Amino acid sequence: MTKLFRFIRQLFLRPSMKIGLGVLVTGGFMAGILSWQGFNTAMELTNKEEFCLNCHTMHDNLLPELQKTVHWSNRSGVRATCPDCHVPHDFTDKLARKMQASREVLAQFTGQIGTREKFKEHRLVLAQREWARFSANGSRECRNCHDYKDMDFDKMRPTSQVAMRNAAARDQSCIDCHKGVAHQLPDMKGARNPAFDTLLSSAIGQSVSSGKDYYTVVPQDLFADAELKSKVGAIEVAAKVKVLQTQGDAQQVELTLWRKNKGYGRVWYGEFGLNITNAVLDKAVAQKPELVKVLASQEDPNTGLEWQQVQAQLWIKKGSLIDSVEPIWTIARASYTQSCSVCHRQPLESHIDANAWPGLFGGMVGFTSMDADTAKVVLKYLQSHSSDFSNKPHAAAAADATLQTARP
C-alpha cells in the first residue's frame, strides 16, 4: 500500500519521469476536449424546458400559469420556452445565470419552496430578483423576439401606440410595463421600498426638541399613554406634529388637524376641505372630549359639510420623526416619476386638485409595482402639491411641464 501511494505521488509531482511528454500532452489535450464536451453537454441539458419542468415547483406552480398566456398558445404557433425568457443567449451571461440559479435549486432541495404555500411566501423575492435582472440588461431575452426596431406601431391599438412609441424612444426595458405577462404577479404586501430605510436612519439620528414641529417618516400607531399600551389610532406618513415631551421610548405629540363633523369623525385631515388623510382614530375614542379638543368649526362651501379643527395630545414610538418633509417628498417624487411615466406621460401634480387625486391615482397604481407604503406617500405627495397648493395658473404650469419634457 505504501508503494502504491508513493507511485501516485510521484506520478503527479514528477509525471515526466513515468510518462512520455508526447503521451502527457496528448492525454491532457484529450482530457480537455472531453471535459469541455461534458461541460457543454451539461449546459445544454439544463437549458431545456423538460429539465426545468422536472422540478415539481415549476411544473405545479409556474407551468399552469404560463399555459394560460399568449406565450404558450397563439395564432402564430410560436411558443416561448422557459430558457427563452430566463436564460441569456450570450455564453458569459448564461454561465452567470446558471450560477445564480443554483440558489433556486438549493431552495428546492432544502424544501424552502417545496410546497405551494412556501412557494407563495418566497414568490415576491424570486420575482424581484428576476425583475432586477431584466431591468439591468434591458430585457434582453424579451427583445430577442420583441425588438423595437422590428415593430410596426401603426398596427397596434391606438392606446398601445402612444406607450410603445414612448418606450422605444427611451429604449425602455420591457419589464417596466410587463411584469406578470407570463406568470401571475406576486402578492406585493411584503414588498418594501428600500428608500424608506434611509428615512428611518435619519429619524433615528434626528435630534428632537420639545415645542418644535416634525414630520412622521412612516405610518405608525397612536397611543393614549407613554407606556404605548393603549392604542387609540394610527398616524400616516408625512403628518405634521408638534413634539411636547419624550419619555423613554415614547414621544408625546400634539396633532392639530381637521375632520368632518359627520359620523364618528374618525378620519383627520391636514387641511380644511381637502381629503388629505393624516390620522385615523378608533371609533371608541374619536368623540371623547378628554382626548379630543374641538378648536373651531367651519362650513365647506363646496359640499355644505361642517368641518371641525381638532386637537389631541397622543403618544408615538420614539425615533420616527424628521424636521423636514422634503426628504419624504423626494422619495415620493422619484417613485411617481419612475413608476407612472413608463407607459405614458404622467399628469403634472398641479393639474389635479387634492380631492380628485385619490380617484385618479387609484386607477393608475394598479399598473405599477409600488408597494403599499410607497403608494400612500406618493398619493399624499400628489395631493400636497395639487392645484389647491399651486400659485401658478394652469396654462403656465402646463407650459413648464412641456419644457421639462422637451429637455434632454
Spatial sequence of strands, sheet with the most strands = 8-9-5-4-1-10
Assigned CATH class of the largest domain: Mainly Alpha
Low-confidence stretches: 392-408
Sum up the overall morphology in one term: elongated
Total count of strands: 10
Count of discrete domains: 4
Could you tell me the CATH topology label of the largest domain. Answer: Multiheme cytochrome fold
- SSE ordering: HHHHHHHHHHEEEEEEEEEEHHHH
With helices defined by DSSP (H or I, 4 residues minimum), what is the helix count? 14
Terminal Cα separation, in Å?
A: 77 Å
CATH architecture of the largest domain: Orthogonal Bundle
* Rounded Rg: 30 Å
> Can you give the mean pLDDT?
82
Relative helix content: 40-55%
- Give the DSSP E fraction (strand runs of 2 or more residues): 15-25%
Name the features.
408 residues; alpha+beta; Multiheme cytochrome fold; 4 domains; 4-stranded antiparallel sheet; 14 helices; 16% strand; elongated; disordered C terminus
